[in-house]
Amino acid sequence: QVQLVESGGGLVQAGGSLRLSCAASGSIANMYVMGWYRQALGKQRELVAIIRSGGTTNYPNSVRGRFTISRDNGKNTIYLQMNSLKPEDTGVYYCNSPGIPWGQGTQVTVSS
């Protein structure tokens, strides 16, 4: 079964940027939709971006205009470019596609 490994998290000041990567152990070409999610301490996991196989994307209002999701089927990897980060963006970020087990995630901490 395909496994997903997230990386690229870290500690950044408010207003800064980070680029997260999610590498799959197998092909993502047939995964119609892939997404990035985040979970803040004590809160439920929430969706922050999705990308479909045709390249269309969706974002919640909280990150629209600041976050950009992309996918490289040749590298079996999806990315999340995060700009203008805010302290409320702090959390563990996960990538996922329906039917795929959740990975360990990568911690993003934004200091004020």
Q: Please mark out the parts with pLDDT under 50 across 5 or more consecutive residues, or reply none.
A: none
Largest sheet: 6 strands, mixed
Q: In total, how many beta strands?
A: 10
How far is the first residue's CA from the last residue's CA? 40 Å
Q: What's the number of helices?
A: 0
Would you list the SSEs in sequence order as H and E? EEEEEEEEEE
Would you mind describing this structure in some detail?
This protein is an all-beta fold. The chain is 0% helix and 49% strand. It has no helices and 10 strands. It has strands at residues 4-7, 10-13, 18-24, 33-39, 46-52, 57-58, 67-72, 77-82, 91-96, 106-111. The chain has a 6-stranded mixed beta sheet, with no helix packed on it. The protein has a 4-stranded antiparallel beta sheet with strand order 1-3-8-7, with no helix packed on it. β5 and β6 form a beta hairpin. The termini are far apart. The mean pLDDT is 96.
